[in-house]
Amino acid sequence: MDPLQDFRIPEEPFYLPRQREVEVFKAAARARLPVLLKGPTGCGKTRFLARMAFELERPLITVACHEDLSGPDLVGRYLFHEGETRWIDGPLTMAVRHGAICYLDEIVEGRQDSLALLHPLLDDRRILVVEKQGRAIKAHPDFLPVISYNPGYQSALKDLKISTAQRFAALEFDYPRPETEAEVVMGEAGADPALAEQLVRAAHRIRRLKEVGLAEGASTRLLVYAAKLINQGLSPLEAAETCLQTPLTDDEDLKEAVSGIIADIFG
Fold this sequence. Notes:
By secondary structure, this protein is α/β, with parallel strands linked by helices. It has helices at residues 21-30, 45-56, 71-75, 91-98, 112-115, 162-165, 178-189, 193-207, 220-231, 236-245, 252-266, and strands spanning 35-38, 60-64, 76-81, 84-89, 101-105, 127-130, 135-138, 144-149, 169-172. It has 11 helices and 9 strands.
């Protein structure tokens, strides 16, 4: 029985390549090099990785990093179960032991002391030190560590250290070109070409508001959400306000600016 069957991608995820990221990632996987995915929220990093896991036929174990993520959360711990104390592998150990892709999403949100245990896995040693068991686990040949972060969103106190970034082969992502982004919206949500073009046009105008203080632009993911709401009977104007305005800001001036863009395109 496959111990990581639940982590396999059963169907091919929809993904449109932008440049040569597929070829670069596969080359890194063959060379057993850790990979960094760098880019804004909702631009396709996670979907790209799911597609790569499917094509490489490897399980994908995802860890959402946060400030309370501890070493045992990643590596594992002893737990009392059915009258006995048993060791339970954490997600990182499962990936190391069985040859999965381990995806640490938004790496800079994690605690530095916890993430330091990755270092022996990122060089030629490829070992995971399990202090609680007093041993080191040699990584399976198919084990692949992947991390991601959004450089535009993090504060200076939560930026990725250069010393850490230099341990990875890096792929930089951004929102797709308009024609590609429209194809994504059509493929993901079944939107007609005219609606997809309108949503993409709205997103590109909203993203320019970052120059005047908008923290994050409208992501491709939000465009897909808006198209799906339209499929459920909402008007394009209402769906755009629900997905492209309200989630992005609480600032009244910026909300008004976004609302103006939406009204101009869908009103």
